[in-house]
User: Fold these one by one.
Assistant:
Number 1:
Amino acid sequence: MSFNFTDESLKKIEESRKKYPTALAAVMDTLWIAQEQNGYISTEVMQEIANVLGIDNVSVLSAATFYTMYHKKPMGKHHIQVCTNVSCMLRGGYEIWKQIKEKYGIDNLGVTEDGLVSIEEVECMGACGYAPMIAINEDYFENLTKDKVEEILDTLK
Ligand code: FES
């Protein structure tokens, strides 16, 4: 299935492109714009990013696969990222990861059957001083306990 950017996305890419000295440097912004439009980064999306920026496919693939914020398959409406890196691990990150996996009955990068939730174990998200933390889409939740996590998850509709 082919992928084409909307006019609105192309406008955003053009704006982003102006911020950087090279087209390659705009690849992360462009991936984000593509994900906003398509929901995830497929092979066709990567190909179109390479076309639009005039860069090679491998550069797009490298960025898309290195950073966990880019989804390589359709994820849930609420994508929950759980940090289990050192600070979070020392303050219960793995217990929270286990709690969330058990609640939804899915494993890393799994999506619930109704498409409501997907989960991902991630490396440090830069909120170590407020560990343990999770992110749900673009929102961070910090200084968590298992009870607080349960309250947050219960609000997801
Ligand atoms: S270790 Fe979890 S945010 Fe840094």
Number 2:
Amino acid sequence: MLFRTITKENFKKMVEGLMEENEVIGPKSRDRDKEGNKIYRFLKLNCFDELEMDYTRSYSSPKDYFLPFKEDLATYRLENNGWDQKIHYTIHPRIIIGMRACDINALLKLDQVMLKSAYPNPYYFARRRNTLIIGLDHEPLEDCFCRSMNTDTASHGFDLFLTDIGDRYFAAINSDTAYIVLNRFNAREVREEDQLRYKKVKKQIESKFKTQVDITILPELMDLEFESEVWKKWGDKCLSCGSCAMVCPTCYCYGVEEDIDLSFTQATKRRFLYSCNLIDFATVAGGYNFRPDAHIRLKYRYYHQFRGFEEAFNQSLCVGCNRCGKACPAGISPKAVIDDLIKTEKE
Ligand code: SF4
Ligand code: SF4
């Protein structure tokens, strides 16, 4: 990997230059929560000043730009004696600025399923291929457990990764495009003083991780505690609202619906994100629901995150952002559930 530094002034010019020809997306505050804290989302930027590089956590993840909540897969029209089908999966080039390491790692996990499986998803592929990713180092929040999930740093999956070292950014370069763009805006070779500042910032970030989740024996523990009362304890609180999956950067369960025009001459096939916590997720033809209880559905979401994905891809699906814990109206978080499972196992 190559490294350069770019002054904040030149970074601003760079973003403004990129905006001239591309859609640029970044963290923006949209509202405030009940404690008065800003609520951030990744949104289209109209000018550089809208970009809030000091954002804390975005409520939902940049996954929205790769797996949107709703997307039309195809439209059909019956004409004369034939039919016409339209499929749109091309997008204009775009840039996402400010992605955290955990969200970049989340995309790499989605890649395993969406790009490297037996049936790659062309819609996801088009978005992934046409999106330039500029990552950004952050100090962790109190409840982030990305360090436990080994996703607090990213070594690939981005074009450029920035660390704020004062008046400039220390930039890790991971693609030709990023290299060319950076050099157009007077990036300079890394000097000794930059290295020292970079190391200091990294140490500071490392010292701020407070929340830990012990995942060392997790896949085995999940099997040992399959019948545990822990699932009932937390599952009985679950409102089956699906918020956890909607904000999660790695959840990808979906449903497909066909929207048929009343004239019966045209239709749209639409895909929408779904959640395995929703009451009808496991309802099959004939109306039988093989996961009718909230605690069973909750258990299977955890099984997918910490057990099933591990078996299929040798890694957890969760990246430890705790967005699900923050969004859950019932106060259910991975740390609380896993800690309980570990405690039960030790009793
Ligand atoms: S902490 Fe929750 S929202 Fe974040 S990746 Fe893990 S399961 Fe998803
Ligand atoms: S957000 Fe909480 S209450 Fe809603 S489905 Fe997820 S675990 Fe259940």
Number 3:
Amino acid sequence: MAKMGMVFDLKACIGCNACVVACKQENSLPDGVFFTRTLSYEHGTYPNTRRTYIPTICNQCEDAPCEKVCPSGATFTREDGIVMVDRDKCIGCSSCAVACPYDMRTMLDKDMFEKGLFGTGELTPFEKQGYERFTPGTSVKCDFCSQRVDAGLDPACVSTCPTNARIFGDLDDPNSAPSKLIRDRDGRQPLPEKGTKPKVYYVD
Ligand code: SF4
Ligand code: SF4
């Protein structure tokens, strides 16, 4: 069985945020909602300073706390390991948002759907088509662009990254690009002490 995962190469990321824009566009995300972000961290002492960019995303945990606490079965893991949310089953209780140790859940603000981006009650064409994908008040998160994965494509952030800092593939396949990177460059998972077994790794 496949186990889809992602590796972030911290040496390659230049913090351009092209991935963030691609994700917003692909998933028609409402104002203020992000499925991926790029954090930046400055280190060293002047004049010998350096900035490292750290992409973040839902870690598609193998032992996902968000799934364990979901009372309606809305959060589930599909066969290829991608953690999904069924918007028709989600009751908007926010338990997943509280349980996620990585703060990767967003509860969709009902007002956003009524007021629109400019607060006038009129939705832009982008909002109109985008909001059809969502149910106000429910929980959303990254699902590795499952619609693209099903079509044999990489997630939008991976396809867009100009420096190949995001590497996607099957972690169960020892010859996949992410598996090789994890092995060769000692890949590390975020907050391993939480016991969530993320399918996202970092190499530097
Ligand atoms: S990172 Fe958070 S939202 Fe994503 S699978 Fe893990 S616990 Fe769930
Ligand atoms: S908000 Fe929805 S997905 Fe999250 S725990 Fe509640 S029912 Fe499950």
